[in-house]
Structures are given as structure tokens and as C-alpha cells.
Amino acid sequence: MFKTVLCAIDGSAATEKLLLYVMHFGKSEHTAVHIVHAYQLPYHYAAIEGYDTLIAEYHHVANGVVEDARRYLAETGIDASGEALEGPAAEVILQEAQRVQADLIILGSRAPANSSELFLGTVSQQVLNAARTPVLVIP
Hints:
Layout: E1 4-9, H1 14-29, E2 32-39, H2 51-75, E3 80-86, H3 89-99, E4 104-108, H4 115-120, H5 123-130, E5 135-138
Parallel strand pairs: 1-2, 1-4, 2-3, 4-5
Helix pairs in contact: 3-5
């Protein structure tokens, strides 16, 4: 049914739970799995000495999040592609879903952390509101 599933991860403890669902889709549907991790660089520190080192570490950690997920899925027999991309999470997820022509987006959900998230919406809510493809939100 689904040819390509995009799995959006954030590297939190909930990522493992999310990957269990992805694993089942990959095995039962023979679906191509693409993992994406969105992150934002701390531009407000750009004038501070050592900023280049900080940025390199952000890239290293973000790529590690994707590699860990790919390794986890590979251990279960799922060959997944993936990448870490810089930018606002909802935008990155939606753009990547369009780029890989995803038939389904899978992502996690959490309660809003503060009043601005409550007003503006969490990443999962933003993706649900704007996606042109089915979205599976894992609580």
C-alpha cells in the first residue's frame, strides 16, 4: 500500500518507539523507508569564539541521530535511507516528504512545552495541518 514512508525523528527516547512502527511498515509492506532529522543551528551565538566548532558538533550529533536510527532498523532487516537537515522541523519534514514522494509520514507527538507552542502548534500539529499525504502520529 505504501511505497515510501518518511520517518521524522528527533533523537529523543520516543524515537525508539516510533522506529518500532516504522519497522513493522518496512517488513509487512516492503516499503522504502526514509529517515529525516531536522535541527536548527544557534545563530544567536555566531559572534562568539568557537562558533565553528559548535556548528560542527551540531552537524555531528544530528548525523549521529540519523545513523543510530538507520543502524537500529538495519538490525531488524530494514534498509533505510536518511539524512539530517537544518531548518524548522515542520518545514523540513514537509519538504523532504515531497522530495522523496512519501506516501506516508510517521512522526511522534508530545504535549506543548509552553504557551507559544500551544498557540503556534507543535511540529506534529503543523505537519498534520499542512501535509498533502497521510500522516501517522505516534503518541
